[in-house]
């Protein structure tokens, strides 16, 4: 579903997470459901982009239960910077639905090479102003 990510082995994945957790410009929260870790929501600054962006991942076994929507809503009460941006592949319907329900509106389009899909992917840029 997500286009702009890479597959990493465990060591590379841990190193990646260490870098994220050490980055003072990133805010990250673990999503838990009944005491179990279900995923994460975070906000990071991409220097090539207009402003801070949110992103989220939920474990497959937790999909379709409104967890991403609830987690992002809660996160947006904590991270109050506005405008806040998000990007999603045009075909990532679930993610676009989560963003729409949390008040993000589509403001632009972009495209880029997706390593994980091995092709060019069109994406939507969304903005939250309230
Ligand atoms: C996208 C993602 C976060 C959604 O998590 P979730 O907890 O299932 O989301 P929610 O249940 O809050 O809402 C998803 C909505 O999209 C819908 N949806 C999900 N996948 C869909 C699909 N392939 N086609 C159409 N609708 C879809 C769900 O039915 C739901 O809508 P509904 O409540 O009206 O039925 C999750 O699938 C995920 O982590 N994917 C991999 C990482 C990713 O894509 N992250 C976002 C990068 S931009």
Give descriptors for this structure.
130 residues, alpha+beta, Aminopeptidase, three-stranded antiparallel sheet, 3 helices, binds coenzyme A
Structure description:
The chain is an alpha+beta fold and 130 residues long. It is built from three helices and six strands. Strand 5 and strand 6 form a beta hairpin. The radius of gyration is 14 Å and the shape is globular. The mean pLDDT is 93. The structure holds coenzyme A. The site of coenzyme A has 21 residues, from strand 3, helix 2 and helix 3.
Q: Biggest sheet: strands side by side, in what order?
A: 1-2-3
Q: Which small-molecule species are bound to the chains here?
A: coenzyme A
Helix content: 25-40%
CATH topology name, in short, is Aminopeptidase
End-to-end distance? 27 Å
Count of DSSP-assigned helices? 3
User: How many domains is the backbone divided into?
Assistant: 1
Runs in which pLDDT lies below 50 for 5 or more consecutive residues are none
Structural class: alpha+beta
Question: Which percent band covers the strand fraction?
Answer: 35-45%
What does the main sheet amount to?
3 strands, antiparallel
Order of helices and strands: HEEEHEHEE
The named CATH superfamily: Gcn5-related N-acetyltransferase (GNAT)
Mean pLDDT: 93
Rg calculated over all Cα atoms:
14 Å
Which shape, going by the Cα principal axes? globular
CATH architectural group: 3-Layer(aba) Sandwich
Record field, number of beta strands = 6
Please give the CATH class.
Alpha Beta
């Amino acid at each position: 579903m997500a286009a702009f990510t890479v597959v990493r082995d465990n060591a590379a994945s841990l190193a990646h997470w260490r870098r994220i957790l050490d980055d003072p410009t990133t805010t990250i929260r673990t999503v838990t459901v009944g005491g179990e870790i279900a995923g994460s929501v975070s906000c990071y600054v991409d220097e090539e982009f207009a402003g801070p962006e949110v992103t989220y991942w939920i474990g497959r076994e937790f999909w379709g239960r409104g967890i991403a929507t609830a987690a992002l809503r809660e996160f947006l009460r904590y991270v109050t910077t506005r405008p806040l941006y998000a990007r999603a592949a045009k075909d990532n319907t679930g993610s676009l639905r989560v963003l729409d329900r949390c008040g993000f509106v589509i403001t632009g389009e972009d495209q880029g090479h997706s390593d994980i899909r091995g092709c060019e992917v069109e994406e939507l840029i969304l903005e939250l102003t309230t």
